Amino acid sequence: MPFIDSLQKNIWALYIPPFPDELFSSWYLRLTQAHAVKSHSFGKYYFPGQQFWTRDVDNMPTDYLRKIIFDSTPLTYNTIESLFLTSYQSYLFENHNPNGFTSGILPLGIVHRKRKHKGLLYCPNCLKNNPYYKKKWRLTISYVCCDCGVLLKDCCPECKNPIVFHRLEQGDKNKVTILSLSLCSHCNYDLTENSVKATQIQLLNQSNINNILQVGYSDHIQYSFHYFHLFQNITNLLSRRNNTWGRLRKACEFEFGPLPEREENFYFWSVEERLPLFEIACKITNDHSFLKYLIVNYNLRLSEFSKDYKLPYSFEKIFKDY
Ligand SMILES: [Zn+2]
Ligand SMILES: [Zn+2]
């Protein structure tokens, strides 16, 4: 490890910086590729005891992991923190749960080194321009790439398997194979193919959502984590048929046609199935005249929205004004 005078420390010889909004795991795999070693060997040498692929490492950083990165790179602690999903605390969610489910984060369903769920999305065009994975591609509120104007995908279009880029290095145990992160690790399909253009309204919805997440504030509901909590709650109501708490879904099916129906929780649905619910939730949270219309015409009850948590005052007020 060369000693860098200006930093007064030794850094990894073939250090490469993370790209904008890059996920830790994506940068880590690229870093090990730059050193021409398997991620397992690199981890064993520099991070003894740390698990990388048998846990959701992007969602569960440890102080140990942060410290080794700090000691071996020119990165500041702030930049290191920004590689992990925990950095959405106070923006997407109020409190991060280090031991499991956190609102707004897509689950991977980790079984050993494999993934059961399609919890990592991607933009085919971004992967073509620069093959790395972004942090916002792990979120339930991400559907469109606003840079490219295309819909995000959640699996390989060819073999339908989830995206598990670290498995690209599998194969001969002693041979280091360096493949682009833009390939499917199951069938080698080029994931940069077949992008689907987003509509203007989809693009607008996503850019509003991204903006709220970035600034941490929404015009109507103030703190962004309150906004996203309400947003998740609405999406959840839309996703389930329910005799007691089903008025919103019924009203929206009347307005927009049948909505997808699945036994599983919304978090496990495919991105295509979740998209129509996302669009309706955007309309309800952004267009208060539409919400008022639903309240009046379908006799919606405040209790349906507030059954699990305290509603933001501005949202409650729309009901109370009727
Ligand atoms: Zn893109
Ligand atoms: Zn595939």
What report would you give on this structure?
There is one protein chain. The protein is mainly α. The chain has 2 domains: 3-169, no CATH class; 200-320, no CATH class. The chain contains 12 helices and 8 strands. The chain has helices at residues 24-34, 39-46, 63-72, 77-81, 124-129, 200-215, 224-239, 247-256, 271-286, 288-298, 302-306, 313-320; strands at 3-4, 9-10, 110-111, 114-115, 144-145, 150-151, 217-218, 222-223. The strands form 4 sheets. It has a two-stranded antiparallel ribbon with strand order 1-2. A hairpin with a 2-residue loop joins strand 3 (110-111) and strand 4. Helix 7 (224-239) crosses helix 9. The site of one zinc ion has 8 residues, from loops.
